[in-house]
Automatic annotation (TrEMBL):
Keywords: Membrane, Transmembrane, Transmembrane helix
Organism: Natronorubrum texcoconense
Lineage start: Archaea, Methanobacteriati, Methanobacteriota, Stenosarchaea group, Halobacteria
Keyword Transmembrane belongs to the record: yes
Segments passing through the bilayer: 34-52, 64-87, 99-118, 124-141, 148-166
Top-level division of the source organism's lineage: Archaea
Protein name per the record: Uncharacterized protein
Length: 200
């Protein structure tokens, strides 16, 4: 349940504190189940598919892809839970913090290093659009943030489909990365609920 003041508790210490910093303190059992369950199901399906469709992948390639998939798939869910939203949009978080978080996702370059089918130029395009798109969303007034984020994300899908080329088995990567960060991480869904409540 969301606190009335909308402020997140401080993370716990130790390993649990690390989890709190990823998904938000006070995350519920249901939220944790969704985050972990979706990540495991997606990664299992991806691993089975690539084992059959891409048998020439090395163990290193397969392992890194599963780690990247777990991070992105889990983040898609975690960024939009009540606990996650409350944590990532707590008062202490600035727009610069959000941009720094997005910019820290260097996944395209990691995959370009591992797969010859993803060129460094395409990795730069993927990353460049991500950071520029985030900057546009963060510069948008709060009441237009969600529609602008969805518009930026839709353009990102076109980039994924028609501009860059990724190896077979990684077709999901760019759309999922953009979904996690642009309309997912950067948009504070609580504003929508507050706007609806005020209009009643």
């Amino acid at each position: 349940m969301e606190r009335e003041d909308g402020v997140a508790h401080a993370p716990r210490t130790g390993a649990r504190g690390l989890w709190d910093r990823l998904v938000g303190p006070e995350s519920t059992r249901a939220e944790n189940g969704l985050i972990l369950g979706y990540s495991v199901v997606f990664c299992t399906g991806l691993l089975l598919y690539t084992t059959i469709a891409q048998p020439d992948w090395t163990p290193l390639q397969r392992g890194v892809v599963v780690l990247v998939a777990f991070d992105i798939a889990g983040g898609i869910v975690a960024n939009t839970t009540v606990s996650g939203t409350r944590w990532w949009h707590r008062p202490a978080q600035t727009r610069r913090d959000h941009l720094r978080f997005v910019a820290g996702h260097l996944h395209p370059f990691v995959l370009a290093w591992l797969f010859v089918g993803l060129t460094w130029a395409d990795a730069a395009v993927i990353y460049g659009f991500l950071v520029c798109g985030a900057a546009v969303i963060l510069a948008t007034p709060d009441d237009l943030e969600r529609p602008v984020a969805m518009g930026v994300f839709s353009v990102g899908l076109l980039v994924a489909l028609y501009v860059v080329a990724v190896p077979n088995g990684l077709e999901w990567f760019v759309p999922f990365l953009y979904l996690k960060l642009l309309p997912g991480h950067l948009v504070d869904g609580r504003r929508d609920r507050k706007s609806v409540a005020k209009s009643r």
